[in-house]
Amino acid sequence: MQHDKVLILDFGSQYTQLIARRVRELNIYSEIHPFNKIPSNLEEYKAVILSGSPNSVRGEAALHPELDGIRGVKPMLAVCYGAQYLAHFSGGEVAPSNTREYGRANLSFIKTNEPFFAHIHTGSQVWMSHSDTIKKLPENGVLIASTHDVENAAYRIDGEETYAIQFHPEVYHSTDGKQLLENFLVSIAGVQQDWTPDSFVEETVEAIQEKVGGDKVVLGLSGGVDSTVAAVLLNKAIGDNLYCIFVNNGLLRKDEFESVLKQYEGMGLNVKGVDASDRFLDALKGIEDPELKRKAIGNAFIEVFDDEAHKLTDVKWLAQGTIYPDVIESVSATGGPSATIKSHHNVGGLPDFMKLKIVEPLRAIFKDEVRRVGATLGIDPELLGRHPFPGPGLGIRILGDITAEKVRILQEVDAIFINGLKSWGLYDKVWQAGAMLLPVNSVGVMGDERTYEKCVALRAVESTDGMTADWVNLPYEFLQKTSNDIINKVKGVNRVVYDISSKPPATIEWE
Ligand code: XMP
What is one Pfam family matched by this protein (predicted)? Predict the structure, then answer.
């Protein structure tokens, strides 16, 4: 890859991934590495950013990066912990803050005409989140901005291309954060803005062709964005040597299997649809515990996929839709670096398809970039804008045991809710939505008759990554119409409730 690269050293901040995403939004390629695993090919990185951290530079758990070959050699931006680290260990002083330093603050510039603050006006809102404060700048430090409560909010080091800021430019509430990153990376460090979805597609297609050659590749499609974009990229690179398998586990949304399969075929993918609904339902019979359900669904999937993969001959590769957040090795907030990489490396007993070589074309990109790449590839915007849907599907939205009849009821309810969101123009305002079938019967009255039927819960949340979420304030009129439609049209349901819990402390799914 011929792009200029930016190295982000992670000290365990909750915002480290956001830094990388903001940099990528500037069409600049960035990589996150733990602070104590500095890549050996340092010469390939044109600039370095030090992240924040939950640790204090004053404590025993202070994290000490090895900055040889970085500080004073490459342009470096130190954020929060990074800024405190430079101060504390290079002749300055860091102490606990006297006042609360969380949330909004406004910058006042000490020096005018600093290229670091080009196109940003004094008073610009920034986001603070720290409990230590820099009392004295490090050697050769030059103060360039303060806020009302934080005198040393931004400084640079004389004679170096080193900048340090106490606030977080990566968060949305720092209104000029992206401009500031652009000032540092483009104007000061001279990094090229050449990382675009088009260039990604072109390079990835070439890289796949080189890696895979004339070999056959198998890939499991889920109907979700990641596996679809991975498939279209691979298809562009190797055509019909890509064998896609799309399994119906019987727990998909109403009519989803047929309609998504048709869509895949329309995209020219070499795809086989396998309806294994009965096999999954059999595997789930009598299971009530959510984790056991997940296990049963996961195992059934592996069996079905393995059976299908065996029908193909000479397959050498397994393709996966793994994306960058799954790959990043991050520093744990509780101290020592911990590997959070998802792994399939069990010992022995692996199904044959898992012994294949792995190709993961989306390993380097974030979810929002996957969508941009998908758009570049001409994938239907409706498919790219789909809400996330869990792998175990409706299996974890039917509380208690699962039967074919319960799946049917929930599919009907879910379809009314989701189609309603679409026709009211609400679907794209919601991050994820769905319905849960509760293991509760309640009394109702329909006509002159008493009923004793099922209750469903509707859930719609806003979120950016599913880690935290809040319920969406859907219009009452919409809820009223949806509830009416569900109770009138879906036999077996006589009560609808709307879930108004945030995550945390609740979760998005009920199981
Ligand atoms: P929770 O319920 O943990 O969900 O707040 C966060 C996000 O993860 C999805 N989710 C799953 N996805 N397999 C998946 O592929 C699972 O077992 C699973 N459980 C939860 C959930 O839909 C939400 O987007």
Answer: NAD_synthase
Among protein residues, the one with the nearest Cα to ligand 1's atom 20 is: 390
Ligand 1 atom showing the smallest separation from residue 294 Cα:
17
Residue 437 has pLDDT above 50, yes or no: yes
CA distance 508 to 104: 29
Known catalytic residue: 80? yes
Distance 381 CA to ligand 1 centre (A): 23
Give the separation between CA 435 and CA 398, rounded to whole angstroms.
9
Strands (E), 166-283: 216-221, 242-248, 271-275
| Range 147-168 average pLDDT | 96
The answer to whether the annotation marks 194 as part of a ligand binding site is no
Rounded CA separation 154/78 (Å): 10
290 Cβ below 6 A of ligand 1:
no
Residue 239: closest CA among 207, 264, 217: 217
Atom 12, ligand 1: residue with shortest CA distance:
390
Per-residue model confidence as pLDDT tens digits over 260-287: 999 999 999 999 999 999 999 999 999 9
pLDDT at 349: 59
The verdict on whether 161 is a catalytic residue reads: no
* Dihedral pair phi/psi, residue 214, rounded to 5°: -95, 15
Domain annotation for the chain: domains and CATH numbers? 5-188 (3.40.50.880), 197-385 (3.40.50.620), 404-498 (3.30.300.10)
